[in-house]
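Design job #97: recover the sequence.
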């Protein structure tokens, strides 16, 4: 399942200036979930770069995080995956949030419906 966030970003890009933006989320959940998240950020080297994105419950409980260990100055936007995300079957939606090393967590959070959770 793929979610494109382009319209949301166009409406709210001014409020996320210099913060990391979530452009797209893909999720597969046969039983254990795999997420692929596309981020965009004006990385400026080691002092200011997108350094993590997370899968959290709607009430904010961390399920799993994808740490980004280096700047992506010459690779924008970029996609990174996270597999092995165990999500209890009663949870039908999660949030994706991202952060950078200077501003912390972006104001943007993306709610994702989990497939096969009817």
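Job complete. Output follows.
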């Amino acid at each position: 399942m793929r979610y494109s966030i382009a319209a949301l970003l166009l409406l709210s890009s001014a409020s996320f200036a210099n913060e990391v933006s979530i452009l797209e989320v893909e999720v597969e959940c046969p039983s254990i979930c795999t997420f692929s998240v596309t981020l965009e950020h004006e990385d400026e080297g080691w002092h200011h770069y997108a350094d993590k994105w997370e899968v959290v419950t709607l009430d904010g409980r961390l399920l799993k995080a994808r740490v980004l260990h280096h700047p992506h100055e010459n690779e924008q936007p970029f996609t990174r995956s996270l597999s092995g995300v165990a999500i209890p079957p009663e949870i039908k939606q999660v949030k994706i949030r991202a952060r950078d090393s200077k501003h912390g967590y972006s104001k943007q959070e993306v709610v994702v419906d989990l497939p096969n959770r009817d």
